[in-house]
Amino acid sequence: MVSPTVPTLRDTIAEDLRAQITTGRLKPGDRLPSEPKLATHYKVSTPTVRQALALLQTEGLIEKTHGKGNFVRTPLRRITYTGGAGIPFAPDLQTTVRTTTVRARGHIRTLLKVPSNTPLTEFHCTTYEGETPRSVARIYIPRDLARTAQLASSSWPGGRDTDRTETQETVTARLPTPEEATALRISPTRTVLTIARIALNSTGRVVEAALLALPSDAADAVFTTHPTLKEKTDR
Question: Which residue(s) pair with 95 in the sheet?
Answer without folding.
Answer: 127
